[in-house]
From TrEMBL:
The keyword Lyase does not apply. It comes from Mycolicibacterium sphagni. Gene3D superfamilies: Tetracycline Repressor, domain 2. Residues 1-20 are annotated as: Disordered. It comes from the Bacteria. It holds the Pfam family TetR_C_7. Residues 44-63 bind DNA. This is TetR/AcrR family transcriptional regulator.
Length: 215
């Protein structure tokens, strides 16, 4: 069966590279949805093929088995969730407090986005079976942010505005107190009022800075 966009006539021959890539991404998105709905054990290639409107042989031409497709679907989810480091770097100013508030907002928005929630759900459900996926998400999505924040704190320490011994540990603590709690709440269905959330972020940033400022 030839798949075409609505309102277009079937083409002749193989699809363009762009269309093939689009269909591949649609497959991975559909696969992730099926894995989320049914879990890895009960999800089937038949069900994924039906959801994607694609023949099983087309899927098997790319992926040897269900596990390989699952890992590719999670990688796709990680790719959609990742915030480019440049996005975080662009909000940096000389005001450390406002910079940290801005970074926390961006990170929390990413975690509580549909892509972020889907990624957390699939990692929590299947991470025991695919432990390398936790490492993948952490190394690709969190480590760059930790390094950027640690470098920022180190530069402010060199200017004397903060005191610290292990900037990477403190960067992790910062993300935990400003992002970790609310992100977990959203995953469990908690609805966050934007004004309350902004107040919480600012309060947590002040508490964090109170702990690292010179005494």
């Amino acid at each position: 069966m030839t798949l075409t966009k609505p309102g277009t006539r079937p083409g002749v021959g193989r699809p363009s590279r762009e269309r093939a890539q689009q269909r591949h991404e649609e497959l991975l998105d559909c696969a992730l949805g099926v894995f989320l709905d049914h879990g890895f054990d009960r999800a089937t290639i038949d069900g994924i093929a039906a959801a994607a409107g694609m023949a099983k042989r087309t899927i098997y031409a790319r992926y040897a088995d269900k596990a390989a497709l699952f890992e590719a679907a999670v990688q796709r989810a990680v790719d959609r969730w990742i915030i480019p480091v440049d996005t975080l770097r662009e909000v940096e100013t000389q005001d450390l407090e406002e910079t940290l508030v801005a970074i926390a907002r961006i990170r929390l928005e990413s975690y509580t986005s549909p892509a972020g929630i889907a990624l957390q759900r699939i990692l929590n459900a299947e991470g025991y079976r695919f432990p390398d996926l936790y490492r993948l998400a952490f190394e690709q999505g969190t480590v760059p942010a930790l390094r950027l924040i640690a470098d920022m704190l180190s530069r402010h320490a060199a200017m004397g505005s903060v005191q610290l011994e292990d900037p990477e540990v403190l960067a992790g603590a910062f993300l935990s107190i400003t992002v970790g709690g609310p992100a977990t709440g959203v995953m469990w269905g908690v609805v966050l009022d934007p004004d309350v959330l902004d107040h919480r972020i600012r309060t947590c940033v002040r508490v964090f800075l109170d702990g690292v400022r010179p005494r």
